[in-house]
Design the sequence.
């Protein structure tokens, strides 16, 4: 256990998992199991979790972090369903869960392809449920991607960003301060830099940011 904990201390960047901790069905949630195709022909696994009264005008696209897979977000989806009767679309980035395999640099903070995956999930939700108002709820890496997506795409009612980073450079500096043995690889792409996009949010978007620090 001590060895595992020491190894995990170095696991600050991408760490996808293929195994699902649970499924919506095992958690007592009704859901549709889906496959979403991205414009560059990647297949993403997704779950649409349906409340007993699936009549809300809203739909949440839940965009996860840089580790694990979408099964980690089932409790949050259940919270929205139980308390607000809102349907929630969960999906896995390529290389996560049972989505198509993808070779990513485990020392990087993210990949531009993940923004393509988020965009495909939003497009799927907008097409399948055209009368719903889309709210993107992002966590960690997903929060930063949600900020970029909310600034570059119309048709999103709101973005909730839980613990986003402001820039790859600032996050890398913070991580390496915690553990000098860790090497972080910044990716030269504005698609991974939320601070360059956030000023472009439109007046009709709701933006909520929150986190511990």
Sequence:
């Amino acid at each position: 256990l001590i060895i595992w904990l020491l190894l995990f201390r170095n696991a600050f960047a991408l760490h996808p998992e293929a195994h699902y901790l649970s499924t919506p069905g095992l958690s007592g949630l009704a859901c549709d199991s889906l496959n979403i195709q991205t414009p560059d022909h990647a297949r993403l696994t997704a779950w649409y979790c349906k409340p007993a009264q699936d009549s809300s005008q809203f739909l949440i696209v839940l965009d996860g972090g840089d580790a694990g897979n979408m099964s980690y977000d089932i409790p949050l989806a259940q919270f929205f369903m139980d308390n607000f009767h809102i349907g929630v679309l969960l999906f896995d980035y390529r290389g996560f869960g049972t989505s198509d395999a993808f070779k990513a640099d485990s020392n990087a903070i993210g990949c531009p392809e993940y923004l393509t995956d988020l965009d495909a999930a939003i497009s799927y939700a907008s097409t399948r449920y055209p009368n719903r108002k889309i709210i993107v709820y992002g966590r960690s890496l997903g929060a930063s991607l949600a900020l970029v997506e909310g600034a570059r795409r119309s048709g999103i009612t709101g973005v909730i960003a839980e613990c986003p980073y402001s820039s790859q450079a600032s996050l890398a500096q913070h991580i390496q301060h915690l553990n000098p043995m860790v090497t972080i690889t910044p990716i030269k792409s504005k698609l991974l830099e939320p601070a360059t996009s956030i000023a472009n949010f439109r007046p009709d978007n709701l933006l909520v940011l929150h986190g511990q620090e």
